[in-house]
Amino acid sequence: MVCGTARDVGLEFVDQVMSVLSGKNVLIIIPRSQHCGGELGGVRSALEYEGARVVVLSHSGQEARGMNQEWFQPDGMIVDWNKQPGVEGKYHAVVLVGGKGARKTLWDDSIVPQILTDHYRAGSVVGAMGSALVVLARASLITGEVPEPEEESARNELEGLGVAYADRPVTCYGNVVAGQGAGAAEIFARTVGDLLSGKKPS
What's the pTM? Predict the structure, then answer.
């Protein structure tokens, strides 16, 4: 499994929507370790540049090492998702980041599906990238095709759940967004941003 590094999002994109997401709170959940830095960095930087308040949580809340040996300090633990400073009530979007560690610490987590379902029912945007797509599928939140993830174990799990693949890097059905991986981080972030700002996803 290849996990790219975060790259700058297109300036044309951020210039058009900069500050449009002011006042929007986004929760990003990452594996305890071995997260995909390209997915996390790409989505987080784009949404923050647009003006969103982004909170990143993991199972332990401790400094996490990514697949490319980079380190990242989350803002806290998943169990404390509703106790983050400056965030009241539901988040406007909840996004799951994949990576090799998703299978160990996200797929079978008991809290994450509840967070996703609760926010989905409240009308928030929910999404996942790469191997974290399995969590969306297990929570019965995938209603259409999703991009085919790079990790074989994730593909096997999705296929076992009856999920079909789309020949594109990002899919969007209602308020559910699915991304293929790090290479699709810019498009994924743009789609989430469009939904949060009330635009039709491009």
Answer: 0.90
